[in-house]
Amino acid sequence: TSSQELFFELKKYRTKYIECIELTRDTSIFNENPIVLDKEKEKFTFLSPHRNGLEKGTEKIWDALELCKSDFDVIIIDWFDNRNPEEKEIEEKLRSNKPKQVKFIPIIKREEMPAYYAYADAIIGQMRLGYHGAVEMEAAFCKRPVVHFSDPKIKYKTDTESIISPFLPHSNEPKKIAEIIDKIVTNKVFREKLQNDENEFMKKISDPTIIAEQWKKLIEKNKTGIVHESKSFFSLFVKIFVFVSEKMYYNNKMQEKNIQVFGKKRYNN
Length: 269
Hints:
Helix content is about 45%, strand content about 10%. It has helices spanning about 5-10, 60-65, 85-95, 115-120, 135-140, 175-185, 190-205, 210-220, 230-260; strands at about 45-50, 75, 100-105, 120-125, 145, 155, 160-165.
């Protein structure tokens, strides 16, 4: 699995035959030398390009922005979860409580993402799950400082050690998020150290060559169990089963989290 949450859930039931190989990104696109976006900025600018909703902790970002003391803009993609009536209601409440720093823009094309990362002074990632996703990975590979809730209980394996993610904060309480945002805006030394630490961390655990080698080792270790062509239907069934199982588990977890969060503060019914 590439899901940290599912990996730790599975470890409750067995310790063997379970591995978590990190996702990676195309570093020929997402790197430290992207095309620069020809667009002026009025002030320090954050980019938050993931979709918005409880799943990403948008209500925590909203609360944190209201607590911030520094002056900055936040460019956010106009993309909200609205798959059901509950999410649509949450979207309406989030929109009606939009912080003053937020500026919505349309969805960005994938090939334009590196230029937007380079344009931004820093990135705001998701604040709920506790481990990084695509946005955080891409931004780190582009060497932009990322604000993103990173659960310190989660450790990531390298060839030689287990390490804790340097992404900050290590709490998703709005006050802690606001503190990191303000520090990134006002402290250049802190900002540059954070972006360097996050970039090095991502290279250690998710560089494409490292991920390819991990898959190679896994296949070599289990080469006697490789499915032959005569068993292609069974192989396809297993892939579909794993995919559906992960989706069902993830959706159930998010429903539980939505129930826990929905009903608090200004996002209540």
